[in-house]
TrEMBL record:
This is ABC transporter. One of its GO terms (cellular component) is mitochondrial inner membrane. Keywords: ATP-binding, Glycoprotein, Membrane, Nucleotide-binding, Repeat, Translocase, Transmembrane, Transmembrane helix, Transport. It comes from Skeletonema marinoi. InterPro entries: AAA+_ATPase (IPR003593), ABC1_TM_dom (IPR011527), ABC1_TM_sf (IPR036640), ABC_transporter-like_ATP-bd (IPR003439), ABC_transporter-like_CS (IPR017871), P-loop_NTPase (IPR027417), Type_1_exporter (IPR039421). The lineage of its organism: Eukaryota, Sar, Stramenopiles, Ochrophyta, Bacillariophyta.
Amino acid sequence: MTLRKSSTRKIQPDSIMLRSGFIGGGANAATDEFLKSFQATATSKQLDVSYLTTSYHANKTTTAPLDDISQPQQQVVQEKDKNRVGLFTLLKYSTKTERYLMSLGIVMAAISGLCMPVWLLLLAQSLSTFNQIGQLFATIGDEAIDVLLGELYKLIYSFAIVGGITLLSGTTYVSLWTYVGEAQSLRIRKSFVKSALNQDMGWIDTHCAGGDPQELSSLASNSILRIETSLKRSIPDTLANLLASVGSLMVAFGLDFPLALFMFLTLPVIGIVVGVLSCFMRKYSGQALGEFSSAGSFASEILTGIKTIASLRAEGWASERYAGHVEKAQRYSVLTIFCGKLASGLMGLLFYLIYTFAFAFGTTQAADNIDKSNEYISPFACWGITLSGYQRPVDCGITGSEVMVCIYGVILCAQFFALMNPGLNAINLGRIAAVEVFGTIERAPPIDGCNDNKGEKLGKDFQENIEFKNVVFAYPSRPNDIIFTNFNLSIKAGSAVALVGPSGSGKSSLSRLLLRLYDPIGGHILINGTPLSDINLKWWRQQIGYVSQEPCLFPGSIRDNIAAGKDDGDATDEEIEEAGRAASAHDFIIELPDGYDTFYSGSSIQLSGGQIQRISIARALVRSPKILLLDEATSALDFESERVVQDALGKIRAQRKLTTVTVAHRLTTIVNSDKIVVLADGAIQESGTHTELHQLGGIYTSLCEGQGLTADATSKADVLGAIEEGTEKMDIKEEVAKVAVAEQLDVEKGEVREDSGQLEEVEDIDIAGVASRLQKYNRPEIVYTIVGYAGGIVVGCLPAAEAILFGFITGNFYKYNTGQELLDVNLPICLWFIFLSACSFIGNICMGIGFGVSGSRLQRRVRVLVFDKIMSYSIPFFDFHSVGELTTMLDEDSEAVGNVTGLQQGQRVQVFTCLVAGMVVALAYAWQIGLIAIACIPLMLGASLLQAKYASRDPSVQSLVSPETLLERSLANIVVLQAFGLRDDTSRKYDLALEPDANFKKKSAAYTGLAFGLSQFAVFGTFAVVFYAGVSLMLSGKLQFTDFFVALLSVMFSSFGAGQCGADFSSRKRGLESAARLFEVADGSMEDGNDPTSDAGNKPDSLEGKVSFKNCHFAYPTRKNNMIYYSNGDRDGFSFDIDCRQSVAFTGRSGCGKSTALQILLRYYNVDKGTVKLDGQDISELNIGWLRDQIGYVGQMPTLFAGSIIDNIKLGKPDATDDEIVDAAKAANANDFILGLSEGYNTDIGVGGSLLSGGQRQRVAIARAIVKEPKLLILDEATAALDNESEKIVQAALDHMQEANARTTLVVAHRLETVKKCDKIVVLDGGGVKEQGSHDELLEMEGIYHSLWTKQGH
């Protein structure tokens, strides 16, 4: 099936009406912004800045006594008490030009903010002029009226001018700051990545959780995004809102100081109420987002280990646990929404109560002024008393216009003050995030591998004599866990030295010290007598060719990956191909689609681990190193490829002087070493050649016996080349080429095809059908939905009702000649605000309960529905769709569905009702004004639609590899990146990958600014047009003042809702598109019939365990043209029979189909042709769940899940007793190390078992399979991750288990010593079975198996 591509938004529509709260809705507009702010910042937390207080000692080369080891290894930095940067420091990465632009933007933001108090003054003067017109009609002639009309028209023009100024200033400051903010954040992101890639490993170990450098990727994403948000509009928006708030308050105080003071003193009460509720909102929102985050992490963990989940039949467990996280998140989300709407309701209630007293008090003042008894003089009342020589016929006391504008001014002060909250929060979060980001950028690592000037360069002819002298070492993250104590080792130039020993003995630690990824805390590492810390590190690493145990490539072509080994990547094609041949990689590379130019994006082509390892070896060889450092470099190779590589290395050492240091578990790879050093407990236990150590009868002898090596293994290896030259049975080129096209990637390792990582865009979406389906899923909450709709309608009608009350009260100020008449009429009207306060409280509560419950439950239902469906898909689905895409869809698309339902739907209802009610009131009281307002709706909506349309576009140019992928792969392989000095090259590629999206965002700044400016102009422009029309109609006698003012206020109060309407419908459209993608997954099906949750199929009462493969042909679904099993000569595909309770081993070269046979038996895949039978019955006819219940599976890469050890073992048998669990652990040689952990079997092992070593994880996985008591046991390289001693013990336990309770066992292994006791060994080659028989029978054939056995030193 095909999924739609997730339409990631490159630009999120800004709240273009963010500062337009003055247009209506009273408390509700500001409260909604306040609610959004709290929801957006609920998860803000103090970032870890501990790294600023400590720095690992880099240059300590004196011998440290043991008593000093526990002393701190870090130095204190003076800035340790700093938890956020200063405001101007936040702008430190701006250029001089950008600072000029920001200054201009600040000026424009100030002008934009001051336009509001100017508008209030113009409104006050306009209302006074209306009053004067009424009076002059009765007392003075037409000449005076013409003069006043001229002044009134001037005021109308002034409204239009103010609108023009807001258009210019708003567009300018938003455009400038958006552009400059994007430029700064891009610069910061580039600098951060460049610095992070160069930080020393000690800093990474202590700074990142679990020492995982991927934490830096999250930091680059989350923290820099916060900085970016704070650098764009937050600062000028906050300034504009501050000036608008202060200016509106000053106007209010200037017009009516007593009334303004009374209202102002009541605002803290509202602030306290909202502040208390905001604490609860932050608490519940943080808990909700925490549960959603846990659900996302759990989903990622499960999907990464989907094959293990399938083998354990744990789909139901996974679904139940995922649903648990989502259900908790739903409950917290409901509480968050309820608290938010409760705050809105209380704010509305308090505001309307304030209105009641304010208008009553103001009416009293106006009545006193009418009766000439008011001695208070308004400072602003007489600002224009002389109009063309005519004296204002009234004194300068408090009039109705001053009362009305004063009340509105205080309201606007509160609203603009609330609107400062999102900006202040964004700035605060940016300042906190900047501490860690800027600290990383500015931190000069004490171990700097990119500094070309620091330290001594020994020259080209230096002798690479290496000496570890009295070295004391502990990892910075575990300072009390001493690895080496006064360790001494000498490595002569040109010699081959091998390091062997059990896991944890310090072998890899020596290689990391030699690369100077860490510095010892005591002693010296000397190169020709010079301390390594005194040598230029960049130069030193250029002398070393390093191959790590875990093979890795970086995004780019194979040619680029090999060339990366050369300084500055300037290797010639001849050098690259020569290195490829030496690493046994050339043959399979040229068989790839584009040869050496085949592009690797991290998951774009199917390369086996052995192939990637060979490319890594070629990368190390191309630089012609003087020192070759191989840390389990051939562990991922089959023995044929391993021998080819070993021979190549031998030839290189014969041609030129090459010092080789090898860390190995496979002793066959190091038997010819000049010196073999046996490490244990952090010290050298034995040292010598293979023959010398074997004769000692010590640790090394025991290791050799465990791998079947004899004292003369070196001589056998020496004659191997002659044996190969005399045989024509193996065409290496042919076999390696087959590997290139046949090896299937393992979804449990996170490896997927490039096309699987991207979901295709499907344009045709049935929007109506998707919306209808969402309503269907929401049907159980129909009562809640009705309650929510009722609340939204009530709250939406409040601005219109408010406009009616405002209009009548204001009109009455100019209608009556005595104060008592005014009091008698206005005071009863004021009491209606009490009714509105109750409506506001009840309506918001209904919205919070109704839409909160219905929306949150729908999101939970959709998330669980889709996850459950994903759990029902067979493995090919996960081959085509990456873990990242699926988890992103579950998280982001499910969240986007919230824009269609829930609180967002309530806001749409509220906005629509507000718009309709406002227009209806305007039409009812002054239909002419109503029609004009309706005609202006396109102007009000245009700004929102403009930005929403541009926001939906994607950059026209996309980078070949996303910057996220580049960073993820670089951090995952940071040891290799630093060892080869690839920081600058990787940073350059990362910068280029950022450019398309960054340039697109910069260009969008103009659209964002224009949209904001137009939204502001639309308000003032509409007001001017309506005001002009109203004046004309009033003078012609067609309209009364009160009717006009009611209609005017209705238009004003509804315009804010209209401005929000366009952006809201834009988010709704994206939400429906997200829902369509989710439903496509939920409705999908796989044609292979391997639904793990299905009850279809037979469930036999018993099972003997007889397996039969008959003429099987197979190719993986992602590469149907490359057959794994196929006809070859007289052989028709893959055929093989396994008797019940027989142990069978599959062996052969990489890509020959060993693991494939096991996956087919587990019904991960179906054969294309032929049959697979179990006890004579086709497995396709068996119930898939029953089948997997009979099989215990342990893969090469152990997959554990977050939780305790006992939780993981019980996945094999959920009802297992404690005794059964302990017995299984003992059988897997895991009981002893488990009991040694802090909490034994209840010890938490972290995500993916990250707190355990690889060998420990493998043993827990084996115990999980054993406790299942399966009838068939499948071991796919099950002991590959164990050291020799543990492997020997576990193998003995498995052998004992087979003897005690014989069962059919299928084993895949490269180490033939571990399978020689199997009843039958099958050698796969050329699309099927090449050889089969017992160990002795196969040796007698002297075929492929004999060759593999010989190559392992037997």
